[in-house]
Amino acid sequence: MNSRNIDELISILEREIGIYEELLKISRDKTDVIVKGKTAELDNITKVEQTFVLDIGKLEALREKAVNHLVNDIGMNNTVSDITISELAKYLDNENAQRLENCKNNLLNIINEIKNVNDLNSKLIQNSIDYINFSINLLSSIPEANNNYSKSGNTNEGIQKTYFDVKL
């Protein structure tokens, strides 16, 4: 078995872990930005996240190639999309199997943390949207003061206007 292929796969996984760690940090920063209502900073963070997502996509393509090389090297019948790290580890020596399992566990932990932070961010954004909708509804339901008088000197009870006629 070619240990270069295993080292290449582990190197790719470690680079992915590094990017996911950066994404986790950015997601946590995003929470603070959302709470403070800094929309310009939120836009910048989103742009940075997009570059990381593109980088992850490139690394995923490299990872698939590395796994394909390993599968061919080992002589497995599986296709790249069917094989898991745990299955692949069964065909490796203990040291490399452990290295792969460590990468898998690190990735899973980081991705789970990112998911939790993103869930919190989604809830915060939804709360902000709900508050904005509440404010719009409140303003749109307040009738405008009627300062029109009829011929008899009484206020005209004609059409009542609101601050907002339409909610988009």
Major pleated sheet: none
Low-confidence stretches: none
How widely separated are the two ends?
Answer: 63 Å
Q: What is the approximate shape?
A: rod-shaped
Number of strands: 0
Question: What integer is the average pLDDT?
Answer: 85
Explain what this protein looks like in three dimensions.
It is a single chain. Helix 1 (about 5-35) runs antiparallel to helix 2 and helix 1 (about 5-35) runs parallel beside helix 4. By secondary structure, the protein is mostly helical. It has a single domain (about 5-140), classed as Methane Monooxygenase Hydroxylase, Chain G, domain 1 (Up-down Bundle), CATH 1.20.58. The longest helix is centred in the last third of the chain and has 48 residues, at about 95-140. About 75% of the residues lie in helices and about 0% in strands. This is FlgN protein. Keywords: Bacterial flagellum biogenesis.
